[in-house]
Amino acid sequence: NKEEAEARLERNKKDLADYQERLYAQDRLSLLIVFQARDGAGKDSTIEHVMSGVNPQGVHVVSFRQPSSEELDHDFLWRISRALPERGRIGIFNRSHYEEVVALKVHPEWLEGQQLPPGKRGKQFWKGRYDDINAFERHLDSSGTKIVKFFLHVSKDEQKRRFIARLDTP
Question: What strands, in cross-sheet order, belong to the sheet with 30-37?
């Protein structure tokens, strides 16, 4: 029930604050929390709600939008690398490096902006991106950045309802 859930959330916030304090004091590991979801699924509100119990000085939230011209002049993981949390800190990604596969497979024309060397953009290209992401995450893990991934799923009907509600309350 709602009261139990709220009480549990408060206990979890206290635990999270305690763990954050230890993470900072030990200064050996970092935590990267990745949120992926469709638009309107609640990434921002989830981040705000769940992380409300931690010290904001130890948390850095990054929202990845359309890449800038500077970001497009580097490899696709460059902007992700720049945003990683330092040891003792928590980093939160609102969207992430997975967009480089998900969004670009839906909109392959966006690859043109990446100034990539000539070549085919078929199965091998995408396999290479998957391999790069997996290797990148293995490297992060072995270097002390622990990754926790969340995919927030809402149905298309719920997404539509939320978008319509936004029209009523801009």
Answer: 59-63, 90-94, 30-37, 145-152
